[in-house]
Write a structure and sequence with these properties.
- The complex is a heterodimer of chains A (259) and B (153).
- Chain A is mostly helical.
- Chain A has one domain (6-45, 64-227): Fumarate Reductase Cytochrome B subunit (Up-down Bundle).
- Chain A has helices spanning 6-10, 16-41, 43-57, 64-80, 88-113, 122-146, 148-151, 165-186, 191-207, 216-232.
- The model of chain B has no long low-confidence stretch (mean pLDDT 88).
- Chain B has helices spanning 15-19, 47-51, and strands at residues 3-5, 25-27, 34-36, 57-59, 71-77, 82-88, 94-100.
- Chain B is elongated and about 75 Å long.
- In chain B, the strands form three sheets. Chain B has a three-stranded antiparallel beta sheet. Chain B has a two-stranded antiparallel ribbon with strand order 1-4.
- Classes of the chains: A mainly alpha (259), B mainly beta (153).
- At the A-B interface, α7 and α10 of A face α1, β5 and β6 of B.
Chain lengths: 259, 153
């Protein structure tokens, strides 16, 4: 199961060009959805107003070279290692889900676009399955234990609200993808049904961008960069400067709990 | 003077939900971020403002005493055991304060529950709970009967 490309066997029933068109449509949906979200929420207007306010409060100019180094820091710390999270469990779950999703999406595109005539290398298929598994591990852990609605508010893990649209569709897509791949390997009669549900879940995931938290993957890096910029130029959203004292006291932070 | 959350900075960690004594900081159902569900019931205690690791919460002063153009922001740094305030007045004046929170590491002082239960016989002793150790002395100064002679104090 883990070394076979499930889309290769599917190409007997659905032509590769249809699959490739679907991928392109999903990418367009994400782009359009994000742009619509930005316009609807007026995020760009809010951000530019924020930057104007920060310019008024800044105490020093940030040079081009420093901007580049801040951008690299944002990429390495805030994006690649999810450095924004203070809670280690949240951070690990997010890293699993994030890298799992990246591996899963990249290998999906590779398997559908690059291996029509050529056999898929085992490593690509393995990374697809591994990516989906990582999404499942990080995602279900988050869903049942780490989610603030459950951990801090004490709601049931089975309570579903609009904020859960992204994580649920992501988990559905990854889980159903693995289920479909497994059923296909065993030649089960439910394979086509599983594929049908898989396509529905994946389509809803990418089409619901204006209503879900999908776009956070674009907004959060921008916000993290803006935060570093405001710390560098002295505006820091009017916050006081960090105290010039050694950090020797440890932390009293505790896990969120039911109240 | 209730609190409000900058939802772009909030990452939905739940620290403000845990700490709010009025139980009015809760999680939004659409964005899974924090927000103040009942500003009228805000105690203005600044617990959530200080607890937020992303400094995403600010306080909106009522305009009768906190005019437009002011800013009051607080930064609590647990690892440095400091709390810093930056006040901006409408006429441009700025005041900065930095105070210690404590002088010993977090968790270094025993809470009452971490002591052993006292013995029943201790109730017959003259000393109160945790004396003399809690007073950092070897023994309490006391008058003994042989010191009670006329003319000697």
């Amino acid at each position: 199961m883990f070394t076979s490309n499930p889309f290769a066997e599917l190409s007997a029933a659905i032509s590769p060009s249809v699959m490739q068109t679907y991928i392109v449509v999903m990418i367009v949906l994400v782009a359009v959805g994000t742009i619509y979200d930005v316009i609807h929420k007026k995020s760009a207007k809010y951000f530019s107003q924020n930057m104007e306010k920060a310019k008024k409060n800044m105490t020093r100019e940030v040079g081009g070279g420093e901007k580049v180094s801040l951008a690299i820091k944002t990429l390495v710390v805030d994006v690649a290692t999810s450095g924004e999270f203070c809670n280690p469990k949240r951070r690990i779950a997010h890293l699993l889900t994030m890298y799992g999703f990246i591996a899963y999406v990249v290998t999906t595109v590779m398997m559908i676009f690059c291996y029509e005539a050529v056999a898929t290398p085992a490593i690509v298929a393995q990374l697809w399955h591994l990516g989906a598994l990582m999404v499942c591990v990080g995602g279900y852990w988050f869903w049942f234990f780490i989610r603030v609605d459950v951990a801090a508010e004490g709601n049931s893990p089975f309570r579903i609200v609009r904020a859960d649209l992204f994580i649920l569709m992501l988990l559905a897509s990854a889980t159903l993808g693995l289920v479909w791949s497994y059923l296909q390997t065993t030649g089960n009669s439910w394979t086509q049904a599983a594929f049908g549900f898989y396509v529905i879940a994946t389509t809803v995931l990418f089409a619901s961008v204006p209503w879900s938290k999908f776009a956070h993957m674009f907004f959060k890096p921008a916000a993290a960069f803006e935060k570093r910029m405001s710390a560098a130029n002295g505006s820091r959203s009017n916050l006081p400067a960090p105290a010039d004292v050694p950090a020797t006291f440890g932390s009293a932070q505790q896990q969120s709990k039911h109240f | 003077m209730p609190t409000f959350v900058y939802m772009t900075r909030c990452d939905g960690c739940g620290q403000c939900v845990d700490i709010c004594p009025s139980d009015i900081m809760h999680i939004d159902k659409t964005y899974r971020r924090a927000y103040n569900i009942e500003p009228n019931m805000c105690w203005e205690c600044y617990s959530c403002v200080k607890a937020c690791p992303q400094n995403a919460i600010d306080v909106r002063g009522y305009s009768d005493f906190a005019p437009l153009g002011h800013s009051v922001r607080v930064l609590r740094e647990e690892e440095k055991a400091t709390i810093s305030w930056k006040l901006k007045f409408r006429d441009g004046r700025e005041k900065n304060f930095e105070s210690p929170i404590r002088t010993t590491p977090w968790g270094s002082i025993k809470g009452p529950a971490e002591y052993d239960a006292p013995n029943k016989e201790d109730i017959n002793s003259q000393e109160l709970a945790h004396e003399p150790d809690g007073l950092n002395i070897k023994e309490l100064p006391a008058l003994t009967p042989d010191q009670l002679k006329v003319g000697v104090v």
